[in-house]
Amino acid sequence: MHKIKDNNYYKWSVEKGDYDRDSEATTSHIKKISRKKRIKLTLLILLYVLSVTAFSYLIISHL
Predict the structure, then answer these.
(1) C-alpha 6: how far from its chain's center?
(2) Which of 42, 41, 22, 24 is nearest to 32 (CA)?
(3) Would you state the pLDDT for residue 26?
(4) Minimal CA–CA distance to 18: which of 28, 29, 8?
(5) Distance CA 53, CA 63 (A)
(6) Where are the alpha helices (DSSP H) in the chain?
(7) Backbone phi and psi for residue 8, each to the nearest 5 degrees, phi listed first
């Protein structure tokens, strides 16, 4: 016979205080992640535009 292992997570209870709210699920944390992604994307777009502009200028100036 196989013995069923009694895991501790079956005994958790919100009423006993075993569960704390996850900080990553808060609205402010989601906004913070969204803001970081938007800033990173903006900087990447800016870097791309500047590099294309510089490359184009170098090509056109040698003509």
Answers:
(1) 36
(2) 24
(3) 81
(4) 8
(5) 16
(6) 27-61
(7) -70, -25
Q: What is the pTM of this model?
A: 0.57
- pLDDT category, 36, cuts 50, 70, 90? very high
Q: Residue length, the chain?
A: 63
**pLDDT 10s digits, 11-31:** 666 677 666 667 667 888 889
Residue 39: both structure tokens together: 């800033």
Q: Which of 31, 14, 15 is nearest to 23 (CA)?
A: 31
Q: Rounded to whole angstroms, how far apart are CA atoms 24 and 30?
A: 7
Closest C-alpha among 47, 53, 48, 46 to residue 61: 53
Q: What is the mean pLDDT of the chain?
A: 83
